[in-house]
Amino acid sequence: VQLQASGGGSVRAGGSLRLSCAASGTIFSINDMGWYRQATGKQRELVATISRTGSTNYASSVKGRFTISRDNAKKTMYLQMNSLKPEDTAVYYCSSRVSGIAYRDYWGQGTLVTVSS
Q1: Taking 90 as the threshold, does the pLDDT of residue 83 lie above it?
Q2: Phi, psi at residue 87, to the nearest 5°?
Q3: Is the pLDDT score of 102 beyond 90?
Q4: Residue 117: exposed, middle, or buried by beta-carbon count in 10 A (0-12, 13-18, 19+)?
């Protein structure tokens, strides 16, 4: 199983970006999916999660600005990020709990988001 994250880039404060995370490989089902981020010198933190049925959970710092979604048929998760702030600058990682040959969590390679003031 592989997770491919994409969509990162550089934007000015107040701008928007949309991240995608596509899963591929031998996959029977994908359960919880989530986005995490790690800023330079800081620990990785949860940004948002979404269950297979669409229940969502957000970090307080992004609630109201970010929206997580998924397309189960495409095995893809998205993160729409609006009203970006310089403190959102980080490498964003996607993670998915996958039932395939094994039942385990997988991580994508990370995509860099840079927000300038």
Answers
A1: yes
A2: -70, -5
A3: no
A4: exposed
